Amino acid sequence: MHVYFSGVGGVGVGPLAEIALDLGYRVSGSDPAISQQTATLKNRGVVICQNQGGHDMAKLHELNPIDWFVYTSALPPDNGELLFARQNGIRASKRHELLNHVIRQQRLKLIAVAGTHGKTTTSAMLAWLLGGLGEPVSYSVGTALSFGPSGRYQPGSRFFVYECDEYDRNFLQFKPDLSVITSLDYDHPDSYAKPEDYRQAFRDFLNQSAIGLMWQSDAEYLGVPPEAGHIKIYPEASGQLDGISLAGPHNRRNAFLAVAAAERLLEGVRREKIVKLINNFPGTARRFEKLADNLYSDYAHHPKEIAATLQLAAELSDKIAVVYQPHQNLRQHAVAGTYGGCFEPARTIYWLPTYLSREDPSLKVLSPAELTDGLDERHRIILSVLDDRLWQNIQKARRAGCLVVAMSAGSLDGWLRQKLVEDTET
Question: Mur ligase N-terminal catalytic domain location, by residue (predicted)?
Answer without folding.
Answer: 2-106
